[in-house]
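Board work, copied verbatim: Type IV pilus modification protein PilV
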Amino acid sequence: MKYSRNGFSLIEVMVSLVILVIGLIGIFNLHTVAKQSNFESFQQTQASYYASDIVSRMKLNRAELTNYAGTYDGTMADPGISCDVAVGANVICTNAQTRAWDLYQWGQLFIGSAEETAGGNFVGGLDSPIACINVNNATGDVTVVMTWRGIRKASDGGANAADSFVKDCGKKGDARRRIFVLSTAII
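↓ predict structure ↓
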């Protein structure tokens, strides 16, 4: 008597399912890492935009260049006068008022105040941002440092090879600190 086998045994099906589950877990983990990396990339792009934005504002208000220097966390008080240039606007601001308005608007941008809130927290902008501006008025050299909190830990917190101004900006010792530095000259 010859027995002919058609189909799969239960053991073969179980082994196939285990292999399939392991593959699906790998794909799910890959998806999670890709989403985290995408968010980190977005944060880096945002930091670049915010640093470029304040440099552009500084170029338009060269008389107050030195006074832009400082450390900012986005919690500046509203300066009371809006120096926005709008069609039909009748507001004339001094250079100092323009600087105060620029810094206020910039801080509101990088904390994401224009975005919807979730539980009282802003969902736009950077996570725990701190920005530092250094100005050498004699040469016109400007350094803008944007720091924020990333998702994953980094080996050096983003400041291993940086100079002391960059290292001192933001929360030192935070392994999740990310840093973006823009150095330029405004003449």
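Residues 6 and 165 are 74 Å apart (CA to CA).
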